[in-house]
Structures are given as C-alpha cells and as structure tokens.
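Comment thread on ticket #2218

A.B. wrote:
> Attaching the input chain for the structure job we discussed in standup.
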Amino acid sequence: MHVGDDVASVSENRRIVTEAAHLPGAPRWLNQVHGTRVMNAHEISRSEVPNADGSYTDQVDVVCAIMSADCLPIIISDDLGQEIACIHAGWKGLMEGIVPSAIDHFRAPAARLIAWIGPGISIDAYVVDSDFRDRFMSRNEAYGSAFRHTLGTWHADLYSLAQSQLYALGVRNLSRYQGCTYGDRKQFFSYRRDGVTGRMATFAWLQDP
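C.D. wrote:
> Ran it. Output below, let me know if you need it in another format.
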C-alpha cells in the first residue's frame, strides 16, 4: 500500500491470499518501518494499519502478518501453542532490537519458545560496506562471526545475526530456511535484486485445540 502499487489490486490480492490460505480471518497488516515496535495483533482493528514490524497474540484465529523481500520473516511460539509472534527482521531491526522486543511479549520463558526463521537474503548475496559491519560490532563484538570478508568485500549473514540474538535471549529451539531470496528468482521476490518488486507474506495464528 505504500510502494506505489495499485491499491485496488493490492486489496484484491490480499482477499485472494486470505481465501487461498484458508486463513481464519483477515490478517492484521502492518505498515513496516524497519523499527522495533511489536503490536498486540488482537488489539489492531481490521481497518487499522499501524506502524510496526511485528505482532503478537495469545488469542485464537487472530492472524499475525508481515511482508518481506530479502528481510527475514521470523515466527516465534511457545511450546504449548498458546502464544505466537510474527516479526519482520531486516538489518536495521536486528541491530536496534526487534527480536528482544518480540520476546518481551511472551509469558512463557525463553527456554520454552520455538523460533522459525523464514526465507531471506543469504550471506553470499548480501554485500555490505565496512561501516555497516562496524555498526554491528559496536553493539556486540560477538556479531563478528556473522560477517565474511571475500575479495575485498564484506558480506553479512542476517540468518546468523537473528540466530545469535535468539540464542542469547535463551531461545534454543531454532530452525531456519536454508536458501536465498536473492538467488532464487523462481520462488521469491527480492528487493535488492530487482528494486521494484512484490512482497512475500508470512502468516501465523493460533488454532483452538
């Protein structure tokens, strides 16, 4: 809705995906700003699109939703399926604290949480400069393992950054997508590859047991 696409087409595509994915209700869409705000999805009205980069709920049939096209979609749940969060984690969100902001919403201790890191750009495709690396290193020197220097160029591993943050917060049950949005043109949109492009949507919700 904020990148110049036809509003009617976007609305129709959202209606189609809601039906095709058999979602229990309309997703609680967000206006993502690469920040650290995580909303309670069940408090977002269907007509509201707040500025936020994550949503959490402990209520059934409330659909959390984020969009991505190289940034990481991350879903977090407790092990009993009573709480869930869906976050949009690009480099800026990871640096500023989107992951701990999401974890703070959970009543369950971090040791009981499960995290899935979805498709994003891989270290091979994500070329950055030394200033980019320095900003992360100034926050935590442990981030050094997420960067690789090859042929005079720095590369950043968003997957590794997200995993290290989750692990440091006490989340031990982790899984991640092994591919790359930039390199897989057939399956994924990629903002860094194409500039003007669509978005992938990631949905998460709780079902009544």
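A.B. wrote:
> Thanks. Noting for the ticket: Residues 7-20 form the longest helix (14 residues).
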